[in-house]
Amino acid sequence: MRTTTGIDPGPVMARPAGATAVDGFSVPGFDAVARLAARSLGVPLVSLVLNDGSAYWFTGGSGVPAHDPRPLHPLYLEMAHRLTAQVVLDTRHDERFRDVVLHPEAASAPVRFFASEPVFTLTGQQIGALCVMDAAPREELREAERAALRDAAALAGAGVVLRGYLGRTDPVTQLPHRNAFFEDLRAHLDGMPDVWVIAIDVAPVQRFNAFVRAMGHVYSDELLRAVAGRTQGWLPPDAHLYQVGAARFAAVLPGRHGQIDTARLDELVAQLRQPFDCLGIPLTLQPGVGLLKVAAAELRGGDPLRLVMSASHAAQQSVRGWAVYDRAQDERHRQEFFLVTELAAALTERTELDLYYQPRVDLDDGRCTGLEALARWQHPTLGLISPGHFIGLAERAGLMRALTQWALDHGLAQLAAWRRAGHDVALSLNVSSTDLGADLVSRLRSAGERHGVALDALELEFTEGTLMEHSETTRHHLEAIRQLGAGIAIDDFGTGYSNLAALRQMPATSLKIDQSFVRGMGASEHDAAIVRSVAELAHNLGFRVVVEGVETAHIYRNVLEMACDEAQGFHIARPLPAAEVPRWLAERPVLPTRRG
Ligand code: C2E
Ligand code: CA
Ligand code: CA
């Protein structure tokens, strides 16, 4: 005989409101497990108490009320949280049992013998305890009896897990699972053109995992229950909450197929952003609430849960804390995710990535002073992906360090080969702000040694923004790089708002005027004036001035008249594959220079 007992929200464990939807579920096999325990230990009463507060009772025959109105004694909840077996041979010697009666039998019979064994899921999560009780005290609990109780507890754990699959409920929150969510969604869409679906992310996955690592499962379980409780309090009474991920809930908003009430959503976010008191530890979460309008037609073959989760994920980073699914943004994220994995693979296999080299010439005598290495990614199906696209991606995905290391090795190997072949050229490498740390110096030094090239043939290009970002420490690192002999260029100058005097504090050797001004020179007098005055100032401050983006003969002639030292651009040469560089060096067209 078995009943489930509804329990008042006690001080130890608050039961999420509305969990009544799943109260009807039993624990498969519990009767058999309990009978086994009752027989092996010779007790009249067995109980499975889960740490969410639900309890299942088995009595060896005496009448059990279908619903026991009394709240479960807190002692049972305490036992449900114990990680080890508890044995109390005679409760008379144990204060905690003072007013515990044989439950749910006649109130007059006190519990005199009590033993419990923790119940775990298959993954080792503690979810409650199996308790055996008797009205008579014991002298001892024999090893065979202890073993029987352990076996029964293990079987009970399997039963609870099984219930999770069958009834699709989560053992921790007792909320129904993803499959039940879809059934509910389908039912709502029956006869309705569309419905709103809501997803709630408790916290960013990494943060939540870090929390579990630091605090343990007892705390995270409690936290999940608390979040579920607040969310259920917010939901309309006829809506059910589902647990659709480790730290993620979802619900179908009944009857809300028109507009969504934004003020109500703000309210939910505000509630979830209030600190949670998790077993005495206040915790502030970073929740994300996502919304999606699902039409009946989209159910077939679609994945509404993934879509609404993409919205809740995006919402975590937003000020508002909630977001309606945005197809374009989702598409961008998917693309980005795909590209990041592909880029990571390209970086380890190193066959799709290549460096092209764009020459830079001296405006005095036309000699090629150096070549700028520019990364190229030839993707097998997407074709050529421009660095403008994948550099930012690498930056966001934490792949920049690997990319720079690859460019450094690849570029220096090529430079060494050209130098051995008698080409007296230098190499410029683009370096991003994430590279500008203390170890860049040692990485440079060892790469130089590995490839046998003196580092005075190398120049690193940092954007103006990077250089102005960190000032003092940056200057320190840059000075160390200069000590190695390598040059430093300020790239894309004019796109930031730094003044030249501030940049003068940086130990840079050259300054590259951004191509946006240079390319505009042909059409705009204004741009020409900017390039002229910047070049003059930079030159006077001691920088070698390089103009980028020299696309036409007209612009080339113009910069020849200015205080510029070098030029780079399509008019001189496009970025070239390494194999074409020696021929270009030997056969390049003659350009006018200051010396004729
Ligand atoms: P950047 O450093 O300013 O490089 C110059 C860009 O302008 C190159 O684009 C080059 O192909 C293009 N360019 C050169 N001359 C002309 C011209 O006359 N007209 C026009 N319209 N464009 C010209 P690319 O190769 O697409 O590279 C874009 C940016 O990606 C680079 O801008 C650089 O910031 C970044 N990048 C490229 N390779 C690497 C790399 O290995 N590491 C890092 N950190 N960044 C890189
Ligand atoms: Ca550059
Ligand atoms: Ca540039």
UniProtKB/TrEMBL annotation:
GO terms for molecular function: cyclic-guanylate-specific phosphodiesterase activity. SMART domains: EAL (SM00052), GGDEF (SM00267). CDD domains: EAL. It comes from Fulvimonas soli. This is EAL domain-containing protein (Putative c-di-GMP-specific phosphodiesterase class I). Pfam families: EAL (PF00563), GGDEF (PF00990). InterPro entries: Cyclic-di-GMP_PDE-like, EAL_dom, EAL_sf, GAF-like_dom_sf, GGDEF_dom, Nucleotide_cyclase, Rev_trsase/Diguanyl_cyclase. Residues 336-589 form the EAL domain. PANTHER family: CYCLIC DI-GMP PHOSPHODIESTERASE PA2567, CYCLIC DI-GMP PHOSPHODIESTERASE PDEF. SUPFAM superfamilies: EAL domain-like (SSF141868), GAF domain-like (SSF55781), Nucleotide cyclase (SSF55073).
